[in-house]
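WARN  no MSA supplied for this record, continuing single-sequence
INFO  ligand: beta-D-glucopyranose
INFO  echoing inputs
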Amino acid sequence: MKRLQYIVILLFSFSVMAQNDIKLHNLQCEMLTNPLGIDVLQPRLSWQIITDVSEVEQKTYQILVASSAEKLKNNNADLWDSGKVSSNASMNITYSGKKLDSKDEAYWKVKVWTNKGETQWSETAHWSMGILTYADWKSTRWIGYNQLFPGDSVSQFSKLSARYIRKQIDVKKQVKNAKVYIMGMGLYELYINGEKIGNHVLAPVPTDYTKNVKYNVFDVTSQLKKGENVLGTILGNGRFFAMRQEYKPYKIKSFGFPKMALQLDIEYENGTTETIKTDETWKFTPNGPIRSNNEYDGEVYDARNEIHNWNTNNFDDSNWLNLTWVEEPGGFPEAQMTPNMKVMDEVTPISITATKTGSYILDMGQNMVGWLQLKVKGNRGDTITMKFAESLKEDGSLYIANLRDARVTDQYILKGEGEEIWEPKFVYHGFRFVEISGFKYKPSLGNFLGKVVYDDIETIGTFECSNPTMNQIFKNAFWGIRGNYKGMPIDCPQRNERQPWLGDRTTGAYGESFLFDNQTLYAKWLDDIKFSQTLDGGIPDVAPAFWRYYGDGVTWQGAYIKVADMLYNQFADENVIKNHYPYMKKWMDYMEANYLKNDLMTKDKYGDWCVPPESLEIIRSQDPTRLTNGEVLSSAFYYHLLQIMKKFAHIINATEVDIAHYDDLSERLKMAFNKKYLNKNNTYANNTVTANVLPLAFGMVPEELKAKVFDNMVHEVEVTKQGHVSTGVVGIQFLMRTLTENGRGDLAYKLASNKTYPSWGYMVENGATTIWELWNGNTADPEMNSQNHVMLLGDLLVWYYENMAGIKSNPEMPGFKQIIMKPDFNAGLSYVNASYESIHGTIKSHWKKTKNKLIWDITIPANTSALVYLPTTNVSKVKINKKQLDKNSENYKTEEDRLVLELKSGTYSININ
Ligand code: BGC
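INFO  complex generated
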């Protein structure tokens, strides 16, 4: 009896412990927290299990979804009750309840049963549906004004003042609920009664507006009041009224004058509803303070033109113009399911220096992307001019030759009313230095503040190691990546380009995913690529195709497939594969039909772009020993893509025909490739490192020759190039991992920690605070020489995390459901301290080597497991949480020179003597 009592008490305390100590957090719908206005009919729901209890595994879950918070509270799941589902999946559970219509609301919660007891119901989460059909826009009209005004210009340096729009509305009753749906092209700011709605900037994310147009949704219940209200909008140009017009129109796409469509849904306390829509009664003026806004050339703001109270009630708009109905942009309205940009960080400048000409040079101490906030006092009409650059010339003036024709100049014209504080709205710059002129007194550092602007996504990775050069490279990468997120991944933020080039992100996106929660951004980008596909299957080099380049390469276009693979691997996003598979296949078929000759892929456009050239002054190498034949690049890469397509085909259960085709073509291609390019001396083609690393990385080398080809490649890197990189954008994507995974982590480490040319460390040594476009970025021709590109990172960041920290998702169990923790402890580092916020929770790996000891602290999130590779086969040397590893324990095995433990969730301190 006593014993039974004891068991009952134990069980009770056990489940109480679980109830309190295991919590459900971070509930997400389509990877977003409480999103408003989504347009996925069966959204995916996810949660994280957060606990200090070890070895927690989810066994069962139950999701309740209700149409109101009240109903959910009472467990009245009128939309969906999943029932108890026995499953360990906590990510991407497809909503399978009642069909949801436009604007429906859904409230949800989840509860799970784990091996350590049952949790309480989670907090309530929420999503709402957007406008799902064209008809549901209920004839909301696009309004605009297709005309230039004095000062505007359609030209190479296009200029257009921002349009200030207002509409007074009468809210007749007490408001219970109000939501606004807005499409403001190119960029908008929305105000209600003078208050800005949302904390974002530069919205919405750019798209090819003839294909799809993104709408944003806001809950504005608290902003509307009974009586007179004013809706105000400012429209900027963005990519819609493009930066360059009537200038290379065959290449540069423009979409016309800014325009908008808006719907405001009001539900009153008494149950009645009302919808306000844009129409030709809305009024506007082009004579506001923003005189010009051009992403390349900058913003001009004349504070003398400020219009007091323009977006509030007490304003007489009788001399404003009426907007007119205008043509729709052409693209279908879609919910924006990735965050807008925001001011994400601030930078205080480190020095200000007077020049001989009376201007000042401000140094932000960091090459950053965003803008400068200005504080100034002066007379009405005084003008402050700010010109932005990434570096200085020897004489201390701005180095702007590498910006090409981008004018990168913001101007502020004072109204003369005490201290004036200003920052632009519709432009951004890539800069470290600013030349400031027009001050009538000596400004101080306090007059300026850098605002860092990029997509509102979280930083999810940290990394620190014993090598300071590698740490600085990491920091440079961090700044470069975030700066180049602009609702799409762009190549560079400073010159007259800023285009979302595919090839720059083929593997880059993967490395970036360890630092930033870039899932929704890249999912959106895949849609951009899909929308830019031609009818016959071609995809462009840049997507959205603001620059209309359809070059039909493989190494650039392959990003479509590689980025989808990244989203699957890192975030367990299967939908991207389901949704894009047909288009990817179409492109693969298109390339095969048009360019496969004798089983080899013959078309390439950019080669191994940006190899270290023969002279430090040039951009493009002409030296045949440095360049890799385009057919080698394309064929090897196409082979690699065939393997990924085969994997995708399995994931989505595509037809056997597809799989057989990938298999058959892979075999033929591999045979033809080895026949033509594998030399008798076990090197490929002209024996560049790129020509060898691709077949090695892609598994094309005959098994028996692998070691020899690898050794030859190592010889090239280690001896011929004396431990330096010699690859361009293509080869660099595979070099670090291939070296390490074939046993030469030490050589990879040499490349990563080098300070001499060419290397990432060389950039650091030469003052870089971001990553350069060219290995020789400090000496090369300015024509194509950005100091903030991310493409040369290749697979460096993947290597930092997977091979140095040992944080890698098991490809068989994507989204870090199982983590492979296999650091190369002997590469050259003595410690690594890294963390990664995986979709399941925080992963940590912190190892430190002393002369005869290794201490390794790891954290494995709940409901995941890890394969932990220890650098010994001697069980007696290993202690886990101070306890000797049990010789008879079943959860380890020996693999080559390592012990492999399978550990469940928890925090472990491993000690190896
Ligand atoms: C861009 C690169 C791009 C390349 C393609 C350059 O102008 O800046 O990032 O991938 O062109 O050729």
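The chain has a mean pLDDT of 96.
INFO  checksum written, moving to next record
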